[in-house]
Amino acid sequence: MSTEEIIRVRGIVQGVGFRPTVYRLAKAYGLQGKVCNDGQGVLIWVSGCEESIEEFVQKLQKECPPLARIDEVTRKRYEGKSGFGDFVISHSISSAVKTEIPADAATCPKCKAEIFDPFSRWYRYPFTNCTHCGPRLSIIRAIPYDRRNTSMAAFAMCAECETEYKDVENRRFHAQPVACHICGPKVWLERSDSKPITSHMFSMLDDIDAVCTLLQKGEIVAIKGNGGFHLACDATQESAVQKLRDRKQRNQKPFALMAKDISVIEEYCTPNAKEKELLESSAAPVVLIQAKGGDDEEERGSGRIQFKIRLEKFATEGNPPGNFSQNSKSRSVRTVEKNLIQNSKFKIPPIASSVAPGQNTLGFMLPYTPLHHLILRRMNRPIVFTSGNLSDEPLCIDNVEAREKLEKIADYFLLHNREIVNRVDDSVVRVVGDKVLTIRRARGYAPVPINLPPGFESVPHILAMGSQLKNTFCLLREGKAILSQHIGDLKTAATFKSYQDTLNIYLNLFEHQPEAIAVDLHPEYLSTKLGKELAHANQYGHGTAVPLLHIQHHHAHIAACMAENDININSPPVLGIALDGLGYGEDGTLWGGEFLLADYRQFKRLATFKPVPMIGGTQAMREPWRNTYAQLISAFDWKDFKQKYRNLEILDFLEQKPLKLLNQLVEKGINAPLTSSVGRLFDAVAAAIGICREQCSYEGQAAIEMEALVNTSLLKKILNNKEYLNYSFNFLVSDNIYHIDSQQMWQALLNDLQQHTPPAVIAAKFHTGLAHSIVEMVNNLRQRNDIHQVVLTGGVFQNCILLKQVTEGLQALGINVLTHSLVPANDGGLSLGQAVIAAAKVKS
Question: Cis peptide before 320, with omega less than 30 degrees from 0?
Answer without folding.
Answer: no
